[in-house]
Fold this sequence. Notes:
Largest sheet: 11 strands, mixed
Helix content: under 10%
Number of domains: 1
Structural class: mainly beta
Shape: globular
Distance between the termini: 42 Å
Order of helices and strands: EEEEHEEEEEEE
Number of strands: 11
Mean pLDDT: 79
Low-confidence stretches: 57-68, 78-86
Amino acid sequence: MYFKGFSMTQHTGDQVVKIQADEFKVAPKKFKMFNFRPFNEMVLKNPRITTYRRKGESEAAESGSASDLQGFSFPKIAPPTNSFSPGSIKMVSGVRLDGLSWVIKDGEKEYVKCQAKQAYLNLKKSEIELEDLELENLENGRRIAAKKGWLDLKANLVKIPKSSVTLAYAISISSHTIQLDMNLNQIPL
Length: 189
């Protein structure tokens, strides 16, 4: 299955998510140089994901800003099982995002940017492995770049090994693993 110029909008809870990609395909999962036919992965090339706070949510924020982004989460990208004909998609084991760009907005104002050269969404573990990632909170100026990191979708936290960090601005690095919330505030381990 292959689409060129993929776009979708998703309304969940208190957020609206818009996903655009240059290409969308479902292909056999590759392990090194081998293809495993029973397992497929979805691949989005150059995905641009924008998460919007729903209208009315920003007025309800105590401080009048998007400083409390705890309710924001990564969009659900996995296809519902009933959206394709039987047998067209075997078992989808994960989603690969090549050239990820994710922005969290409140109205037209951008608050958090996340970019990664490649990301892999593991559907079983509910986490996203990010390679060559860069996170920036435009409101408080915090910024971090790393060779590798993980976005824990259940806890809504970013975890980055200390040895992987290439740049940290307004973020202290004291433990072996850095845990950050969606505002790039450090969370103790």
